[in-house]
Amino acid sequence: MEFTNELFDELYEFVETKQLKKLREILSELNPADAALFFDRLEEKNIPIVFRILPKDLAGETFSYMDPESQELLIRSFNDNELRQIINDMYLDDVVDVIEEMPANVVARILQTANQNTRQQLNELLKYPEDSAGSIMTVEYVSLNKNKTVAEAFQKIRREGIDKETVYTCYVTEKRKLIGTVSVKDLLLADEEESVGNIMVSNVPAVDAYEDKEEVAKAFSKYDVLALPVVDKDGRIVGIVTVDDAIDVIEEEATEDIEKIAAITPSDRPYLKSSAASLWLQRIPWLVLLMVSATFTGAIITSFEDALQAFPALIAFIPMLMGTGGNAGGQASVTVIRGLALEEIRMGDVFKVLWKEIRVSVMCGVVLAVLNFIKIIVVDNLIFGSGITTLENLTVSLTLVVVVFSAKVIGSTLPIGAKRIGLDPAVMASPLITTVVDAISLIVYFAIATQVLTI
Amino acid sequence: MEFTNELFDELYEFVETKQLKKLREILSELNPADAALFFDRLEEKNIPIVFRILPKDLAGETFSYMDPESQELLIRSFNDNELRQIINDMYLDDVVDVIEEMPANVVARILQTANQNTRQQLNELLKYPEDSAGSIMTVEYVSLNKNKTVAEAFQKIRREGIDKETVYTCYVTEKRKLIGTVSVKDLLLADEEESVGNIMVSNVPAVDAYEDKEEVAKAFSKYDVLALPVVDKDGRIVGIVTVDDAIDVIEEEATEDIEKIAAITPSDRPYLKSSAASLWLQRIPWLVLLMVSATFTGAIITSFEDALQAFPALIAFIPMLMGTGGNAGGQASVTVIRGLALEEIRMGDVFKVLWKEIRVSVMCGVVLAVLNFIKIIVVDNLIFGSGITTLENLTVSLTLVVVVFSAKVIGSTLPIGAKRIGLDPAVMASPLITTVVDAISLIVYFAIATQVLTI
């Protein structure tokens, strides 16, 4: 049963008419992720009432999937016992996710209410910087000693497993150092008397707790694992990241890159949850920056005012030339930015990229120039009678070739250059490159015009 | 041990000096994903030689991770026995991935060589359309009967598990219909005599085999599962998609959207593996389309030639106005496109989006107009002595407000409109919106100029 508008209406009817038993029945049938969607659409006053009718085993997980707004509302309505219960029912990394979204007084109450052991673990997790591997890991994993037998390992999994986020990969440690992993699949297929050390895999990918979470996401997509161990600088395991959190990071990182490409300062908040003021703040600095940098293009045009007075037809092609340059440069830069993000392109590939873009840009430029030359003759002159001279036409078409060439060369190399000096390649995307290309387009245009038209 | 340039050099040294034993030793220590990276960088002639020294248990998995080019080369060098062995060692969905990249004669040989059962399953999987859930699923899962006990379930997992891609979620079926799932974790924590039906979860998210694989990816990010069952139209289970394949889809879909946003026809091939001709083909149609559509802006400028002759200062601001409009519209459209892709924005939200964008655009427009007004007085007039009149300045600043407003309104609604009529919202991104906004900017500019400057 999936969560649809019809289902919402049906459930809401039960809320309105206080048929809580029927409501509970249907909610119990739902996947927690779907049940959370119902709460997120309920009015504030009803959220605590309906939440209390949820079956115990569903409450914690449903809570994890809710919006921060609904979570905060619920926490404020909980008494200490209820709050402690929910914290116990949730995985620790999910509790950390909740804490990170709450105001300070709610955070303080969560930490106060949690039992001592949980509080200690939470404080441990909260000390890692935002966006680090440590900030998205959990400490709930099963660790094994290499000298134990498979049967003993299963005993330990059965004893501790209920509270662990995953039992499918167990971590073999020696003096807290990670020396290998063993999967439950391998344990199931092994002899009961076999030792864990004999069946463990020792070439284990791991990440440092202070590494950027983007690296964690990359490791998941490279190694196809269900969980990744997080280690400190001495190689001691401090936690694990599970694949569901890695998926969130992969989506967040893609969204961030897309926002940067479109000249928006990235934000964690979904669009509809963002206030107009915060959206404005994400966008206005870039608009101002790009507007001010367009002063150059204005200055270039002003300095060629005489040429434009002599050949007014040239003005009409300025938008087309600048637009094509921006698009051609944007194509190259975005391709390279994404390639860098997915590590399909590395720093050492700069000459390979350049050579490829040179060939592509010549092919694109020549085709565009020829089509434009024909278009001016047929559409502009024959149909609209604009009376553009062949020399003017030649000027525009020649400019196209040079503009596309320089746009692609700049567009492809600027992101790599940015990465080399430690900047984020994504901010070098279309809008910024467009500004550079705009200025170059105009200079080239007027330079060619001066030669061809002998102004 | 991770794969680095130094490690490559070290290993390559062993290849050159034919120290195959040492090479084998180090390769065995590597994670298969890293070992595959080594093969992808090796020259063609050495790939088959080195591959044959890999330990048997590493060969299949390493092969799965290789580039299609290396895989094809190896398949051509294999005799039938070797090929059959590799196919047996790989998971079926990985074999399908390989087949999809191979030329027809190699595909024919793979299907011929596989044993009858495998061939049947492969043909079954290959019949699903590209980009469907069926095309990325595997048929290697464990199915259970609800009347079996936990102990019997473990027997079945032990018997069949070695060949299954995942054993951690088992699928409970009744007359092949999916009626629930049971996780190995729950099996481990349950009593041996308990029946599977009693501990299974029955609210199972599933996808239709013909559904777009993008929907599969969305289900993974929503439900936090390790595998998702794929069903036919009668609810019978036909396969499962595992989370590692879902991660690939999530990354591919993000790349596709980024490419469409930058006016590039998406492609599966990594940049460095794409020929210049194929890159050209991905880009040129959009460049031509956008160049031709810029004819409108040219026509608008031409029709206002007299106004521009009377007030030549206006020409210099055309790039800034069009650029700002393009950037403002791009910000709005890209935000909405990503929101639609992540289902944070739904079709019904169009008025919420519009109202938000109206407020943001007024705030952005007014700030830009004021800053621009001051900039023209200080920079253009005082510093560069451009002599722009207050009325001209007013024209430009007023235009900015209207341009930003219309850019954001169009930018945010066009993608939603595209989705409503069944088009991909991502193609409505920056470049296409820029073209529309460019035309509007110019019309607004000249209309305001006509009024303010009484041309």
State the order of secondary-structure elements of chain A, H for helix, E for strand. Answer: HHHHHHHHHHHEHEEHHEHEEHHHHHHHH
Work out the radius of gyration of chain A. 30 Å
Globally, the shape of chain A reads elongated
Judged by helices, strands and strand pairing, the structural class of chain A is: mainly alpha
Number of strands of chain A: 6
Please give the largest β-sheet of chain A.
3 strands, mixed
Strand neighbour order, sheet with most strands of chain A: 1-2-3
Report, as a whole number of angstroms, the end-to-end distance of chain A.
74 Å
Q: Report low-confidence residues of chain A grouped into runs of 5 or more.
A: none
Q: Summarize the amount of helix of chain A as a percent range.
A: 55-70%
Subunit organisation of the chains? homodimer
Q: Which range does the strand content of chain A fall in? A: 5-15%
Number of helices of chain A: 23
Q: Let me know the average pLDDT of chain A.
A: 88
Main interface by residue count: A-B, 117 and 117 residues
Structure, explained:
Two copies of one chain form a homodimer. Chain A is mostly helical. Helices cover 66% and strands 6% of the residues of chain A. Chain A contains 23 helices and six strands. Chain A has helices at 5-16, 20-29, 32-41, 46-53, 56-65, 68-77, 80-89, 92-101, 104-113, 116-126, 133-136, 150-160, 184-189, 196-199, 213-223, 243-261, 276-293, 295-303, 305-310, 318-341, 350-383, 390-420, 430-452; strands at 143-144, 169-174, 177-183, 207-208, 227-231, 237-242. In chain A, the strands form two sheets. A three-stranded mixed β-sheet of chain A has the order 1-2-3. Chain A has a three-stranded mixed β-sheet with strand order 4-5-6. In chain A, helix 15 links the parallel strand 4 (207-208) and strand 5. The first copy, chain A, is elongated, with a radius of gyration of 30 Å. The termini of chain A are far apart.
